[in-house]
From TrEMBL:
Residues 20-231 form the Tetrapyrrole methylase domain. It comes from the Bacteria. InterPro entries: 4pyrrol_Mease, 4pyrrol_Methylase_sf, 4pyrrole_Mease_sub1, 4pyrrole_Mease_sub2, CobA/CysG_C, Siro_Cobalamin_biosynth, Uropor_MeTrfase_CS. Belongs to the precorrin methyltransferase family. The lineage of its organism: Bacteria, Pseudomonadati, Pseudomonadota, Alphaproteobacteria, Hyphomicrobiales. Pathway: Porphyrin-containing compound metabolism; siroheme biosynthesis; precorrin-2 from uroporphyrinogen III: step 1/1; Cofactor biosynthesis; adenosylcobalamin biosynthesis; precorrin-2 from uroporphyrinogen III: step 1/1. Keywords: Cobalamin biosynthesis, Methyltransferase, Porphyrin biosynthesis, S-adenosyl-L-methionine, Transferase. This is uroporphyrinogen-III C-methyltransferase. It is an enzyme of class 2 (transferase). The keyword Methyltransferase applies. GO terms for biological process: cobalamin biosynthetic process; methylation; siroheme biosynthetic process. Gene3D superfamilies: Cobalt-precorrin-4 Transmethylase, Domain 1, Methyltransferase, Cobalt-precorrin-4 Transmethylase, Domain 2.
Length: 285
């Protein structure tokens, strides 16, 4: 019986003319693409991609594939979502093999659901390929776990702005502040001063750890560690620009131990960043 990578790749699905595949490209590092994503890139006639898909990922497209940019960036002229969705329908009806390539995961603040509904409405066959979302993979590249037994049993993912670009009023900030030990935010850098104030007004400590991760998982990745109370000032001084993933909570402190990229450059890691392991070992003795 054949096994191994060759067996897997030879049994990946074929992309058929008139199909649209909604595919997550992950946070940026092409090594985080799934096999299904690479398979789609190798077959697609046309790739419609958003602003967060890296050139390294697009470089895996088959020779001759058409590449269309359909990025949406806050505060900048962008394609309308309705137009993007109908463009996918148009291309599929032309009998093209269509790849809609989206940064992260299509269904995590990626509006993939809206595109899928449009395809269903027009009878276009489609496939959904999940990707590694930046709120998990990007933080892992920064050495920050989303969960850890010593710090949290809950985590909340939320977006920092609504369709008009303002801080979402539909979020129960009081509930999030009280109920979630760790908060991971997409598209929150621009309004983080207001968000931090809402969280602190709801009872979060001004000294609570916060991290901003920009260009996550790429060679340009930068990480700013700060606190809720200092975040706005530190962010302004840093000169960092969005897009960024923001995380609030004690898990940020694990970066002292888990910054594996820093360790590759000579950083000394701290084996017990919270100072709890010695206590646990004593209690279990």
């Amino acid at each position: 019986m054949e096994n191994g990578l060759g067996h897997i790749t030879r049994n990946l699905p074929d992309m058929k003319p008139g199909e649209v595949w909604l595919v997550g490209a992950g946070p940026g590092d092409p090594g985080l693409l799934t096999l299904h994503a690479v398979n789609a890139l190798s077959q697609a006639d046309v790739i419609v991609h958003d602003a967060l898909v890296s050139n390294d990922c697009l470089g895996l497209a088959k020779p001759g594939a058409e590449i269309e940019y359909a990025g949406k960036r806050g505060g900048k002229p962008s394609a309308r979502q309705r137009d993007i969705s109908y463009r996918l329908v148009e291309l599929a009806k032309q009998g093209r093999k269509v790849l809609r390539l989206k940064g992260g995961d299509p269904f995590v603040f990626g509006r993939g659901g809206e595109e899928a509904l449009t395809l269903v409405e027009h009878g276009i066959p489609f496939r959904i390929v999940p990707g590694i979302t930046a709120g998990i993979g990007g933080l892992a590249y920064a050495g920050i776990p989303v969960t850890h037994r010593e710090t949290n049993h809950t985590v909340t993912f939320l977006t920092g702005h609504n369709s008009s670009g303002a801080v979402p009023d539909g979020i129960d900030w009081q509930g999030v502040a009280r109920g979630s030990q760790v908060i991971v935010m997409y598209m929150a850098m621009k309004h983080f001063d207001a968000i931090a104030n809402r969280l602190m007004e709801a009872g979060r400590d001004a000294g609570e750890a916060v991290a901003f991760v920009t260009d996550a998982s790429t060679a340009d990745q930068k990480v700013l560690e700060t606190t809720l109370g200092r975040a706005a000032a530190d962010l302004a001084e840093s000169g960092l620009e969005p897009p960024a993933i923001v995380v609030v909570g004690k898990v940020v402190e694990f970066r002292k131990a888990f910054d594996w990229l820093g360790a590759l450059s000579g950083k000394t890691l701290t084996p017990d960043p919270l100072g709890t392991r010695a206590v646990e070992q004593k209690d279990s003795a």
